[in-house]
Write a structure and sequence with these properties.
Length: 577
């Protein structure tokens, strides 16, 4: 015991080797009372410590940019939300109904991790999987997928999965360095569109932007050395979230934080499917238009929309709090001259003209995932292109006929899309149509002839019929079609009263007459100026009533807690039924 007590205490950490011993991989033994180690003394070499010391702790994997473990995971413990079989079923549904629009995963890699239950041990991946399940459960609750509907319970609802995903994200976002946290935030934003939860949509997109800026995600040159499957996932996430933010800015009058001029990320490689992407490289498709081709062209359209939103906002600037309009020389300098509306329309036409024959028409859904993805892209491309045309039609004083013609073209194009795609895309399609309807509302802010009002009436009635069909296909009753029909009835009523009171010519307002005139191509407003309203007050009264009842009006959205463009959201699924 005394011998043990007199023995010197060993150091728990080996001393740092000198430069020479480190270089030759020799044992570096210190000499008591000397600054030179035994090896350097034996060989007469200088004993130096000039090399930089490496940081201790787990090293970052150069292929993934991740650490094997992190202190933030110490307090996290896996808590099952659903059976593993349900998670796998929801993943299969994501591949079928969500992936064609938001291909955020390299599917072979992702589903392999799901099958191996890696989400039970990886906090960031758990958050992503739960967010994915929440998105799919939200679609299923809208009855877009009857085959899996019976598997859901109150404890496995979209809200339950969403809560699990949010709880797995570190409160301090500086600790959320893993790529999967960015993907989780994007998925949660997609879910918010599905649920019409616009307040939290902005919050999740804002968190995504914070994580993106903190990690340099917006610049591909700052990414780690990623294998091809992960690199494609990063590109897809970046551009998917970019299009989502442009869509949000148009639909809910938001701002664009994703500026394409300040980013440096390439488009995803156009492959037939994800099997063509492996750790050894990508095999681009040759001689065939892939669904990723249509997806990239849709992204091109959103890049055009970003500039159109800028132009539209510059022409609609509201006065500042001091009452001074912000149409100053700075804005005038940097927005003029710019391309003309005709040039932009030609660009949109040329962009859509790059599409192959696979994207000209959506064929009936067959169950062949590779083929059905073209139908999803046709629906997405149609709505995005028509949004661009509608913004262009409202620019530079375009006529009401041109704007209503865009609506009629949209109605015709969407009528050709099979119901199965509409049901799968679900409420985001309603929001997209609503954003186009909101743009139509700009025309009622200027004086209109009775003929122009008839054009608006016909467009609104067409939208009402379209949205009725969409609501029936999706399985929701948001009430927007009934509001549109009430608006059409008010137009008919007011125009009839004016005709009865002799404001117009002796013939009365008649919807069928207007329809016959429209079909004949005759513009009664230009051929007979006596059709104008007798007084500006009557015009203003009708415009004011239409604005108050306009179902796509965004003014109340920023004032009320309920941020849904459709008003109060009704429950989409009755768990008791």
């Amino acid at each position: 015991m005394q011998a043990q007590a007199s023995r010197p205490i060993r150091s728990r950490r080996a001393r740092r080797a000198c430069d020479a011993c480190h270089r030759t991989n020799s044992k570096c033994t210190a000499i008591h009372g000397s600054e030179t180690c035994r090896t350097c003394a034996d060989f007469g070499e200088p004993c130096t410590y000039n090399r930089l010391a490496k940081r201790r702790g787990p090293k970052i994997d150069p292929m993934t940019g991740k650490r094997p473990s992190s202190n933030q995971d110490v307090d996290w413990k896996y808590a099952p939300i659903a059976d593993h079989s349900l998670v796998e079923n929801l993943a299969d549904e994501y591949l079928r109904i969500v992936y064609p629009i938001f291909p955020l995963f390299h599917w072979p890699s992702f589903i392999s991790k799901v099958h191996r239950r890696l989400y039970e041990n990886d906090r960031a991946f758990f958050a992503t999987v739960m967010a994915m399940c929440a998105v799919v459960a939200g679609r299923i609750e809208n009855r877009s997928s009857q085959s899996v509907l019976s598997l859901l319970t109150p404890t496995t609802s979209s809200e339950a999965f969403k809560a699990a995903a949010i709880s797995a994200i570190p409160v301090d976002l500086t600790l959320a360095r893993d790529f999967d946290y960015k993907r989780t935030k994007s998925l949660l934003a997609i879910l918010c569109v599905q649920l019409a939860d616009i307040k939290h949509l902005h919050i999740h997109l804002g968190d995504y932007m914070t994580l993106s800026l903190a990690s340099g995600f917006y610049d591909e040159q700052r990414w780690p050395n990623l294998p091809p499957p992960e690199r494609e996932e990063w590109r897809r996430l970046f551009w998917s979230t970019y299009t989502l933010e442009i869509f949000t800015a148009i639909s809910w009058d938001g701002i664009v934080r994703h500026r394409q001029s300040q980013t440096n990320v390439r488009y995803p490689v156009e492959v037939v499917n994800d099997d063509a992407i492996s750790p050894s490289g990508c095999l681009p498709a040759s001689g065939v238009s892939t669904f990723i081709r249509g997806w990239n062209i849709t992204t091109d359209l959103y890049r055009i929309l970003e500039h159109l939103v800028d132009r539209m906002r510059c022409t609609q600037l509201r006065p500042s709090p001091s009452g001074v309009a912000r149409t100053d020389t700075v804005i005038a300098l940097f927005t003029a001259p710019g391309p003309s509306v005709k040039e932009i329309r030609q660009l949109v036409d040329a962009t859509c003209g790059q599409l192959g024959p696979e994207f000209q028409q959506a064929h009936a859904m067959t169950g062949d995932l590779d083929m059905d993805r073209y139908g999803f892209q046709v629906a997405n491309l149609t709505l995005t292109a028509q949004t661009a045309y509608m913004i262009l039609a409202t620019a530079d004083g375009s006529s009401i006929e041109e704007q209503c013609a865009v609506i009629q073209e949209l109605l015709g194009a969407l009528s050709l899309i099979p119901t199965a795609y509409i049901a799968s895309i679900s409420t985001p399609m309603l929001h997209h149509v609503a954003s186009i309807g909101h743009l139509l509302g700009n025309v009622i802010q200027s004086p209109l002839t009775p003929w122009a009002f008839s054009q608006v009436r016909d467009a609104l009635l067409g939208l009402a019929n379209l949205i009725t069909g969409l609501e029936a296909a999706i399985g929701v009753a948001l009430g927007i079609s009934s509001k549109l029909r009430a608006l059409v009835h008010k137009i008919d009523e007011r125009m009839g009263m004016m005709a009865h009171n002799g404001v117009h010519r002796s013939h009365s307002w008649n919807a069928s007459t207007q329809e016959r005139s429209h079909e004949s191509g005759q513009d009664n407003s230009s051929s007979d100026p006596t059709l104008l309203f007798a007084t500006p007050e009557q015009q203003d009264q009708l415009r004011m009533e239409l604005r108050e009842d306009w179902p796509f009006n965004l003014e109340h959205i920023t004032q009320n807690e309920d941020l849904s463009i459709f008003g109060t959201r009704q429950p989409l699924f009755d768990w008791a039924s």
